[in-house]
Design goal:
Elements lengths: L1 H9 L4 H19 L13 E4 L2 E4 L6 E3 L6 E3 L11 E8 L5 H11 L17 H6 L6 E9 L2 E9 L7 H9 L3 E7 L6 H12 L3 E7 L8 H11 L8 E2 L8 H11 L12 E10 L3 E10 L2 E2 L3 E4 L4 E4 L2 E5 L3 E4 L1 E2 L4 E5 L13 E4 L18 E7 L5 H14 L4 E7 L3 E8 L2 H14 L4 E3 L6 E5 L27 E4 L11 E16 L3 H10 L3 E7 L4 E9 L7 H8 L5 E12 L1 E8 L2 E2 L5 E4 L3 H15 L7 E7 L2 E8 L15 H21 L6 H14 L1
Parallel strand pairs: 5-7, 5-8, 8-9, 9-10
Antiparallel strand pairs: 1-2, 3-4, 6-7, 11-12, 11-20, 12-19, 13-18, 14-15, 14-20, 16-17, 16-19, 21-23, 21-24, 22-23, 25-26, 25-27, 27-29, 27-30, 28-29, 31-32, 31-33, 31-34, 34-35
């Protein structure tokens, strides 16, 4: 310290010179970092100028303070690197093969996240993601890595692995040039692994095979490498073996990303085209959009245009994710970042949309955009009718973050007011239901999941729904149209038998990967669900791939649970939507004491109608309280009764007071009782308790 002060005294400059040097130093740092003017260095920074040049006291640290989050970030993560030193990649894997754990280790090794801030599944922000051990929402992170004395910018895009979110996976793949294919070294190739690899190949990505969990006792890397080469056809001569949990092989993965994944195309002078791969709603700033700049540049203050939603906005803020949000002045072609533009709804910035400049628009949008189409539907009703407004508000808030969630009002004579909701799949449905119950403290009843059916009507007469609400997700009002087609997801909205020619239902192609010991059991399961066998092949000596085509309605029940149960957890599945095919479907109605109970109706296949009707009537007989009169419980197809049960009456012993006397007196009392019961049956009404509805709905989920 004394030496430093002595040298300082010999070459101390004037106060004006010192202030000028300080301002010049700050301007040079801000220019080099390309940060927003809202970022400021500490006011307490002190400079000491000596004969050898400008040196700073230890009070001036190589840290900035993010204006939005207050988080400290290193200067080096904001330094601009040439496009040739940018690598955009993602991690694709089957569920539970270690994708999020590997992402955590990459963030930690590169210093993107400090050790004190590190936690498991760092990029999984939702409590549900941590509890279920799955990734639901896409995340992104910018990492800096030194390789060959050169700084490289590595943009990691984390992807969900479940089949329900395959569209989000495809859009995140389109934002990358390469992918890490993570395969469990003990389990090998699974169904979703194949599906994600095919998506990556369609996007012409450079795929780096990574064998994870090699530290497990049951790991067989040689067998899995051979399996990848035979099943997928990838060259695994340069496959990387690692253990994300133990940190083994992480440096080799980072080096492989730099060496093998190509840099993005440098098109900074072209009109702006940026691909949206995720978005979420912030209550203070509106929708925050995650995007990859394909062509051109985007900076704060630009007027931008969304080509699919056809909406224009001003860019209030642009920045990078490291992994917290940090503002920058401009993003160039090849970079990944976020955008805030005071957007009110996620529907205006959908995944897959293209961002361009409002004044200098691109000639064409980026390919691959699709509208999110719900595939599974169910009714959500509050247990307490007073919670209906809270349920509506909760669904509206969830829809701000989830553009794939659709809902419309629905009423039921048994369960009151609720909503008919559309989801991407069963997991999506479970997640939404659990979030409603957990985050908004709602108690809900869910009806049996169903799919959308298409009904070909006989003529062009108008079809009007009996629902009291004027707006529906599925248009049911047709008049004099060339193709008389009605889409319906609710049995109560199905046109009458005299108005329909045929009914079509959605079909899927399902691929099951299973050990050879369970082939027969899984084929039996698919056959029982009206599956049509297509192909079977052995991908290895002990594992087979079985392909079936079957109705989606047969999968929305307990198909996945049965698949795991029959294979002792070893089988996996993946399905793709094929389209609609005509089927012999009918509407099964339930009548109690001659009254039609609409909430218990179901659309079933003709071959399963008797079994379903028998199961429902028997269950209702157990659950409905006995009445003073005999109650018939019938399952009907139109006017034809296919299954029936009778609930015997509660009989009062009217002869108890007749301890003797003429038999005619007893006959008179019995006759009077019979007439009373007959009159009571004609005017009496049977109230089905809510517990009975819930039990029957649970039964429908099992038998449909």
């Amino acid at each position: 310290m004394a030496k430093l002060l002595c040298s300082g005294l010999t070459a101390l400059l004037s106060v004006n010179t010192w202030q000028g040097q300080q301002q010049h130093w700050r301007r040079s740092q801000l220019s080099a970092l390309r940060i927003s003017p809202t970022h400021r260095l500490s006011k307490h920074s002190r400079f000491l100028v000596v004969s050898q040049g400008v040196e700073t006291q230890t009070d001036v640290k190589e840290e900035l303070y993010d204006s939005q989050l207050g988080a400290k970030v290193g200067q080096d993560r904001l330094l601009k690197v040439p496009v040739s030193n940018i690598r955009n990649f993602c991690i694709i894997a089957h569920i539970d093969h270690g994708k999020s754990t590997l992402a955590d280790k990459l963030l930690q090794i590169t210093g993107t996240v400090q050790k004190r801030e590190m936690k498991e599944q760092f990029l999984d922000n939702m409590d549900l993601e941590r509890e279920r051990g799955i990734t639901i929402k896409l995340q992104a992170a910018r990492m800096r890595y030194m390789y060959g004395n050169e700084p490289y910018c590595l943009n990691l895009i984390d992807t969900p692995g479940h089949v329900d979110f395959s569209y989000e996976v495809s859009r995140s793949l389109a934002a990358c040039e390469g992918a890490l294919l993570v395969v469990d070294a003990s389990q090998g190739v699974e169904a979703q692994t194949l599906a994600n690899v095919y998506l990556a190949l369609e996007n012409n990505l450079e795929i780096i095979p990574v064998l994870n969990k090699i530290d497990l006792p049951g790991a067989e890397p040689d067998r899995v490498i051979k399996e990848i080469e035979e099943v997928i056809g990838l060259d695994c001569s340069n496959a990387i073996c690692c253990s994300a949990k133990e940190g083994i092989g992480i440096t080799e993965i980072l080096n492989g990303i730099v060496e093998r994944i190509p840099p993005p195309h440098d098109a900074a002078r072209s009109p702006l085209r940026a691909l949206i791969f995720d978005s979420y709603y912030d209550p203070y700033r509106g929708v925050i959009v995650y995007f990859r700049v394909i062509d051109g540049t985007i900076k704060k203050g630009d007027r931008i245009y969304f080509m699919a939603s056809k909406k224009g906005y001003f860019a209030d803020e642009v920045g990078v994710l490291s992994p917290n949000q940090m503002q920058v002045e401009e993003l160039y072609a090849g970079e990944v970042g976020y955008l805030s533009a005071s957007i009110r709804s996620v529907a205006d910035a959908r995944v897959g949309d293209t961002i361009t400049h409002y004044g200098r628009r691109a000639e064409s949008s980026l390919p691959g955009y699709e509208e999110a189409t719900p595939m599974v539907f169910c009714g959500l009703f509050p247990v307490d009718a007073d919670q209906f407004p809270e349920l509506r508000d909760a669904l509206e808030k969830l829809q701000l973050n989830d553009a794939a969630l659709k809902f419309e009002p629905e009423t039921s004579s048994a369960m009151g007011f609720g909503f008919r909701c559309g989801f991407l799949g069963l997991l999506h449905m479970e997640i939404v239901q659990e979030r409603l119950e957990r985050e908004y403290n709602l108690s809900l009843i869910t009806t049996a999941p169903s799919v959308v059916y298409r009904v070909n009507c006989i003529n062009g007469d108008t079809v009007i729904s009996s629902q009291p609400y004027p707006h529906f997700l599925f248009k049911l009002y047709f008049k004099n149209v060339a193709r008389k087609l009605v889409e319906c997801s609710n049995p109560s909205l199905l046109p009458e038998p005299g108005q329909r020619r045929s009914i079509e239902e959605p079909f899927v192609k399902i691929e099951m990967l299973t050990p050879k010991d369970y082939i027969g059991s899984l084929m039996e399961l698919a056959q029982d669900r009206r599956g049509e066998f297509k192909e079977m092949k052995f991908i290895t000596e002990n594992r087979a791939s079985i392909i079936y085509e079957l109705p989606l309605a047969e999968m929305v029940g307990d198909f996945f649970d049965q698949l795991k149960s029959r294979s002792k957890g070893y089988a996996s599945m993946e399905y793709t939507f094929l389209g609609y095919k005509e089927s012999e479907l009918i509407k099964l109605d339930i009548q109690i004491n001659g009254d039609h109970v609409e909430p218990l109706s179901a659309i079933v296949h003709k071959d399963k109608a008797y079994a379903v009707g028998r199961a429902l009537t028997q269950k209702l007989k157990e659950l409905i309280p006995r009445q003073m009169f005999k109650v018939p419980i019938q399952a009907c197809i139109g006017s034809k009764v296919i299954a029936s049960e009778s609930l015997s009456a509660i009989r009062k012993d009217v002869l108890a007071k007749c301890y003797g006397g003429d038999i005619s007196r007893k006959k008179k009392l019995l006759k009077k009782q019979a007439e009373g019961k007959k009159r009571m049956k004609a005017i009496g009404k049977v109230d089905v308790p809510q517990e009975a509805f819930m039990a029957v709905l649970k039964l429908e989920k099992e038998v449909l």
